[in-house]
Amino acid sequence: MDSVSSTSSLDDSTQLSPNSDPKAVDQRFDLLSVTDEPIQSEPGHRGNGDGFTNGSLNPERSTGDEDDDQLGVEDQELVADEGPSSPNSYSYAGERGSASATSVSRIDAASDIDDIEIQEVRNESSFEGISDSQPSSGVPGKHRVDEDDASISWRKRKKHFFILSNSGKPIYSRYGDEHKLAGFSATLQAVISFMENGGDRVKLVKAGKHQVVFVVKGPIYLVCISCNEEPFESLKGQLELIYGQMILILTKSINRSFEKNPKFDMTHLLGGTDDVFSSLIHSFSWNPATFLHAYTCLPLAYATRQAAGAILQDVADSGVLFAILMCKHKVISLVGAQKASLRPDDILLLSNFVMSSESFRTSESFSPICLPRYNPLAFLHAYVHFLDVDTYLMLLTTSSDAFYHLKDCRIRIETVLLKSNVLSEVQRSLLDGGIRVEDLHVAPLPRSGPLPHQVQQILQTDSPERPREPFVGIGGPAGLWHFIYRSIYLDQYVSSEFSPPLNNHQQQKRLYRAYLRLYASMHDKGIGPYKTQFKRDENYVLLCWVTQDFELYAAFDPLADKAEAIKTCNRVCQWLKGVENEIFLHGASPFSW
Known about the structure:
Blueprint: E1 2-3, E2 14-16, E3 23-24, E4 30-31, E5 67-73, E6 76-77, H1 152-155, E7 159-165, E8 170-173, H2 182-197, E9 201-202, E10 204-208, E11 210-217, E12 220-226, H3 232-250, H4 254-260, H5 274-283, H6 289-292, H7 302-316, E13 322-327, E14 330-336, H8 344-355, H9 358-362, E15 365-369, E16 380-386, E17 391-397, H10 403-419, H11 422-432, H12 452-459, E18 480-487, E19 492-495, H13 505-522, E20 532-536, E21 541-546, E22 550-556, H14 562-578, H15 580-583
Parallel strand pairs: 1-9
Antiparallel strand pairs: 2-20, 3-4, 5-6, 5-10, 7-8, 7-12, 10-11, 11-12, 13-14, 13-17, 15-16, 16-17, 18-19, 18-22, 20-21, 21-22
């Protein structure tokens, strides 16, 4: 029996009409009704006068009760004598009042993480928010390699990731030198083995504000230690992606090496890939693809995207398994061979591998890779070539001697893309940016329409036939600040650019974590799933709407009116329908969307 601690609470949330079916506009875009039943605040929660619950999605401001005095794995309790803590390789900084387990799994209560907040080290100029335009440089690398588990700064880190073998050998650590963390890795391995020897499997340990999440993949153990109040399922999903990134580099056949030698050291196989894992972990704080399991497309005119897809289809018919044209982390077009299906997570991991490896930028490359969702046991070979500083082409094949054939295919593709001005249109779209909530004020709602940036240009011209609505507040109508829309049918999403007042990285990161919590609560099988959910706190109003065809997550001004927010969400869906041919990839035959 698996042991799992509860990881998320909906005490601060309010659900609107759970499992109710909204009225339909058409088959794929529904209408969210404003005639929901009144929302009642739960007992013990302070209201705001409008019947909404005032919960906090801000981890730094949360005052929720924590399990400060327990180190539990569901109904099991790990108990040991309390003793003085010391900065050794078997300790980790926890909160005051946290109980200790055995000497092997001791939680070091030497310091309170709330007293000294150590910010995650990152290149501020390269921060990437949940917007459609991302910086092109500054891939985050390995953090603080001089640290070890005896370092105060290491213990104060808010979020750690570890990969280790079932023998306790460290493979990767987000912070510090893996070799200096050998003792700590042995501690984590001992905790997992202790539970497995008892016929159980540890998934989550909670100690105060810290969550320790475990994922076991055969001989590979993955661990996350976090005090950011992210949901358990989110942290588990992040560990799954880290494992997928490792499989993309090595394939699942690495298990056979451990079967032959349980003490096998695989660190040399991952040499030079620290930037790849660091970049993926960095994306957990800005990229919705990491929890939506969907990919996003660069906004392009329908004819431009079709032109790119046509030439990719030509080379796919000549023996290429997958042909993918991307700009940064966004898909321009992709095609695949018959009966071949490329999953969104594979696109995420593949693009992260390419974007975070400098060697791919300097010359055309032919590298063995594995697509964990496609076939975790098989090596493919990827031909990668950057057409400009942001745009790159990936051609995947099963043949190890197809380099020159793929090079010829690339020359054909590049020639067509230049002649048809696809690359120049890509650069223009990149400069124009993505969808902005401000454009929703007077955006038309046609069955098909221009690109969002074209809509903006049209609306800047005063026209008596199209009167402007009065601007009220900051952001879009009804105080709309941001939204994410996911098409379930297409496995694609689109998100708006950040607008005031979401100006700085901390505000954007806080909103991202709020989305994580909202997504987890909407998809919590134990209490839902819900069709709609409405939350109000001191930071924003969050409205989520899930149908069989799409999911919409929207953030409004905290003083936004409920009825107006719902109307605005309806309008966002209709607006996106009008430009869906430009923001989504349709008809990528032979994919079965």
